[in-house]
Amino acid sequence: MTMVAVREVRKVYRQGDVEVPALSGVSLSIDPGAFLALAGPSGSGKTTLLNLIGGLDVPDDGKITVDGRDLGTLSATALTELRLHRIGFVFQAYNLIPVLTAVENAEYVMLLQGVPKQERRERAMAVLDEVGLSGLYHRKPAELSGGQQQRVAVARAVVSRPAIVLADEPTANLDSATGEGLLAMMREMNEARGVTFVFSTHDAMVMDAARKVIRMKDGRLDGDKGL
Q: Domains in the chain and their CATH numbers?
């Protein structure tokens, strides 16, 4: 089964009376277990496409299927459930909750899922160990470096056991060594757990790490590199 199918998707944003096309008839398929980068400059449409795949926005035209579900047919409640249980998100700005500790941030999605407290804590601590944050469970985001905060964000995304993780510019705020370590960690999770990873990026390091790169330009696909 295809993990993601995008068919002739179009998206236009309106700025006053001006229409700005973000995506112009994009079609692509992503297989389960992919480690894939949507690459392109600012304004190419890659983040828009990532948000549409994650159900954070809706296309003006076309069809998107994720994990066998046609997003356009889902009610708001069903879409929320799909995001909660099947899709993990890693945002460029981390989006951690500042008043919560690292382990509490990692637990947050599982809390929404209704996972029992002890299981939540055990799973969160185990995945924080896995991303190299052992001993930092009780630090709040302000007490962590940018790289450590991004690792907490990755831990939060994967600990809920999603089918796919969508990561928007995950290395944008990191130095090269920290970024390389984060990508290696995500590649290891991809290979060990079979989780599908899709990145939006303009970072050559992410493109080099990806097994497939789909390039975008001006809201259209501009070729791909399969590895």
A: 4-226 (3.40.50.300)
